[in-house]
UniProtKB/TrEMBL annotation:
Alphabetical list of CDD domains matching this protein: DRE_TIM_NifV
Record key words, sorted: Acyltransferase, Transferase
Domain of life: Bacteria
EC number: 2.3.3.14
Boundaries of every Pyruvate carboxyltransferase domain copy: 12-267
The protein's name in its UniProt record: Homocitrate synthase
Pfam families according to UniProt: HCS_D2, HMGL-like
Entry GO MF terms: homocitrate synthase activity
GO biological process, one term: carboxylic acid metabolic process
Coiled coil: none
Organism lineage: Bacteria, Bacillati, Bacillota, Clostridia, Eubacteriales
Amino acid sequence: MAIKDPINDIQVKIVDTTLRDGEQTAGVVFANEEKIIIASMLRDLGVDQLEVGIPTMGGDEKEAIKSIVKRNRNSSNAKSIMAWNRAVTSDIEQSIDCDVDAVAISISVSDIHIKHKLRTSRQWVLENMIKSVEYAKKNGLYVSVNGEDASRADREFLVEFINAAKKAGADRFRYCDTVGIMEPFKLRDEIWYLYDKTKFDIEMHTHNDFGMATANAIAGLMGGANHVGVTVNGLGERAGNAALEEVLMALIYVYGYKTDIDTRKFKEVSEYVSRASGRFLPKWKAIVGENTFVHESGIHADGTIKNPMNYEAYDPAVVGLERQIVIGKHSGKAAIVNKFKEYDIKLSDAEAKDILSLVRATTVRLKRSLFDKELVSLYKQYKEKE
């Protein structure tokens, strides 16, 4: 099957679900004010649509959603605000009450779910989906029909489901790899098949159970999807979702996609969501982890000093980070000499070699790289022994 390259042929819409699926991470609860702040940060970042919660939960959830909608409407760069619903008209009524402009209507489409979760039939699924879509459209809402567990559904039933949703007036289909079992090559072909048979807008919603959420999200776009669901830092059920910052940077730097997303805000957004969610942001986290632009190994540090592009795919300022050359066990003489230049200390080759030996011994003892003050102290001790 010939797969086209749609990444640069279409406008990819970014759908952020940090405030819905991200908050469904076990143990994560955002305070109402935090949800409002996160929504504002994502809006300023430039995402196209924010899925902000589940109105039928009532209480604080509805209050937060209403506040987000109100503030968004008064913003100069207002975005589409979506609420999540089951395929039940009472859920949609709650969303209408929140004054959102878009709804996600979710229903299971795999036989596993239909038989063992819903305990009903494919026909029942189709009937309830159509009824819910028609009700939402009658009330002037943009509608995303979510196929829960689509990755384990019969593909011909998916075609039937999507075409029925399209006929009922839905605006797009959300393909959910609910348990994260897909792999990129198979998923690309699957999305291509579904798009070829339906000619309908498709959103990728991928989970990270096997560590492939970001790759699968991109693969879906390669197959013809034109919306992609993401969360900040990859928050989400179980192992999480495709990470906003990873998907966007891959689109921009791997595929050359042009976007208005302000990537310089990634660090700020990621750190805020990390604190609000109570989920530690690892130093080694792709794109926003502070180690992304930290160099210690002698060969790498030397190459980076000579030209950062030797070991960096893009300038750290692009994502709000800074480059660091740290001194530790794996450092080389070039890094030592360069570091001491910062203190207007010019080391001879012999001095650099001796201090490097002291550095390596000290880092092994401390089991970490050294702070600048510790390096200066080593230098002073070395000079005193001369």
